[in-house]
Design brief:
The protein is of the alpha+beta class. Helices cover 44% and strands 16% of the residues. The protein is globular, with a radius of gyration of 21 Å.
Length: 444
């Protein structure tokens, strides 16, 4: 195939046919198409876009470049959840064992943190011994016994997407909605899903901060799922402040364990229950949201959700005792309070600044190959709208050394703003998107 001709055609507003996408992605995965040509095509897509048929063709081509899970023999629905990424967003760690404990199979494929956002795989791997590099065969066996597997994208699944994803990050084309949608769905369809729930973040800490862009992505994903026989429901949730209190890998695992015990922060639990209800409905495990909510509350209060997480940890090589004793998780060498320098109202807790601060402490990546210190991060107790006094604790810094403490202070000084008054934050959940259209979220 002459890749240059496709680049020129897309650059000039033309279309690429499904058969052309298939051959191009096969050749790219095999190394016959160089990265520089695929980078040029990604930039053309960034500016020109893809129509619905092209998007389906690209998604199919990336899906067919690798292997897929065959889970048709499992009883019950097979539903995953995907978040577009945020700071303090540990929902997946709570949701996967919770929904599995309610009778829905959860083949959950996650990614690593990059830039200002955290990654589910890095959080899970802060649990001593936990392995996310399961083969498809091992993941299938675990789903058969536990109804849940928490894995990364293996070499078997959508190898063309894996190469293109890394290239998009290096060429500043990450925010392209067609490329985001094709990347997510090529991996999710490879899981053999019967449904997908999408958590689209909006606000200053999201990859797509603007409401209209978030809605566009949600509608694109819903349409793409419909074209492939996989129902998709998307919720738009707030990322103009961190979700929950803990920000940092081991700290977020500890907060997730507390959530599975029924002691999670209210905002984390609200988002978890909302997304979980959609998963139970798609998976056929509940007739309506009220029943779904009750089933999840019972799974938590009875201890079944925490027990399922313990079983998953043990099955994937981790130390299951961490659920009963979170002090087994990596512990920071230095801990210090961060306090308000004046009285007033918390006007802002800026998630991007918090995320960059975690990276400065060693807890995040600027490059894929960077090593991560799982012990560092912040626990931020201040919420937008809180009235505080001078000297009142707003957060706790967890660092490897005194230099890290200083970096943490600088990050939080830029992230947390106390003023005389404050604008209200974004609604925690604002919209629900399905094939039927876009609905404003109604509070329970």
């Amino acid at each position: 195939m002459e890749a240059r001709a496709l680049i020129e055609r897309k650059r000039d507003g033309g279309r690429i046919a499904p058969a052309e996408w298939r051959l191009l992605m096969q050749q790219y995965a095999a190394g016959a198409v160089p990265d520089y040509q695929m980078a040029a095509l990604a930039m053309a897509i960034f500016f020109v876009g893809l129509d619905r048929e092209e998007l389906g063709g690209l998604t199919d081509a990336m899906l067919q470049s690798g292997a897929t899970l065959d889970l048709d023999h499992l009883r019950g629905g097979r539903v995953d959840k995907h978040s577009t990424g945020g700071v303090g967003d540990k929902v997946s760690l709570v949701l996967a064992p919770l929904v599995a404990a309610c009778g829905v199979n959860v083949p959950m494929m996650s990614g690593r943190g990059l830039g200002h956002t955290g990654g589910t795989l890095d959080k899970l791997e802060s649990i001593p011994g936990f392995r996310t590099d399961l083969t498809l065969a091992a993941a299938t066996r675990q789903l058969e016994t536990l109804g849940c597997a928490l894995i990364g994208q293996t070499r078997e699944i959508a190898p063309a997407d894996r190469k293109l994803y890394a290239l998009r990050d290096a060429t500043s084309t990450v925010e392209s909605i067609p490329l985001i949608a094709a990347s997510i769905m090529s991996k999710k369809l490879a899981e053999g899903l019967t449904g997908l729930v999408l958590d689209v973040k909006r606000g200053s800490g999201a990859f797509l901060p603007e409401l209209d862009r978030g809605l566009e992505l949600a509608q694109t994903m819903v349409s793409l799922g419909a074209d492939h026989g996989c129902p998709v429901v998307a919720l738009l949730t707030a990322m103009d402040r961190p979700l929950g209190r803990a920000c940092g890998n081991a700290l977020e695992v500890e907060e997730s364990i507390m959530a599975l015990r029924g002691e999670g922060p209210p905002d984390l639990m609200a988002v978890t229950y909302a997304l979980g209800a959609e998963m139970l409905l798609l998976g056929g495990a509940a007739a309506d949201r009220d029943e779904a909510r009750r089933r999840m509350e019972v799974a938590i209060s009875s201890g079944k959700a925490a027990e399922r997480f313990q079983q998953i940890i043990e099955a994937q090589g981790g130390n299951p005792a961490v659920v009963d004793d979170p002090s087994i998780l990596p512990q920071a060498a230095e801990v210090e309070l961060f306090v308000a320098t004046r009285a007033g109202v918390v006007a802002q807790v800026e998630p991007r600044a918090v995320g960059r601060g975690i990276t400065a402490l060693g807890g995040g990546r600027t490059r894929v190959e960077d090593q991560v210190d799982a012990s560092v991060g912040f626990v931020i107790t201040a919420r937008p709208g809180d009235v505080v006094r001078a000297g009142e604790p707003l957060a706790t810094i967890f660092a490897a050394d005194a230099t890290g403490i200083q970096r943490g202070r600088e990050a939080l000084a830029g992230a947390i703003r106390v003023a005389d008054d404050a604008e209200p934050p974004l609604p925690l959940i604002s919209h629900r998107v399905t094939e039927a259209g876009v609905q404003l979220w109604e509070l329970d």
